[in-house]
Amino acid sequence: MKPSLIFCFWLLFSIDASAQIDLSTQAFGAKSQGLGTTKLYHRDAWSLANNVGALDRISDSEIGIAVDQRFGIQELSTVALSGVFIIQKGRSIGIGIARYGGELFNQHRLELGLGTTRGIVSFGLKAGWFQTHIEGFGTGNAFQFSLGGLAELGPKFFFGTQLSNVNQAKISKYSSERLPTLLQMGITYLPSENLEIHTELEKELDQSPIFKFGLQYSLEKWIFLRTGIHSYPTALNFGLGLQKKNYGLDYAYGQNTALGSTHHLSLFLKR
Hints:
By secondary structure, the chain is mainly beta. Helix content is 8%, strand content 58%.
């Protein structure tokens, strides 16, 4: 048991929180994973976690559930549930919960967000409770706040941004270690009804920036093919999406030459 814990810590911190396996930084939903972990444009149940600024861009209220399995290690798995609901025209709310890790080391996250739209710009604010538990060391709790936005630059161009953990919350009041503060910016280009192109840049304080690129092509109105890449750690991702009426399924596969493969599955229901 203890060697497993030590390995998880080594894996988590040797490739930094920016590696998208930490609960406070990872992309949520298999769609995002299939697109190289790009986050900022996708308007779905995972907007609360990925970019609260896109919260009010959903066309229908939506609930999603996701499971991530990384490198064949149970201690690096994530399960998440998220819902985004339209209150009225120009205003939406979201609530989400997620768990990452195993018995010896785990993290929990609970978030509540509000999004609104003014003209061509949508923006949102969210508050989150973040818990880290390490067997034998105790449990730490923290509250963090994030801001996001999504602007329509033209019929085919969108600009998204999110600043996560603006208050630079610590893991616990007894620790000097802080949760990651991330600045994310990206542009989405929609050259046709069937094609989406996503480019993003993610920067954590005191870390090198990460570049992300994703492509989505729809064969039909109900089937979507995806691929993407992010620069650190370098990984190539592929994805498949199926949608019929108000429900659908997304799957993504990621390959990192140093660590192995990851699998991501998410389901969603609209109303």
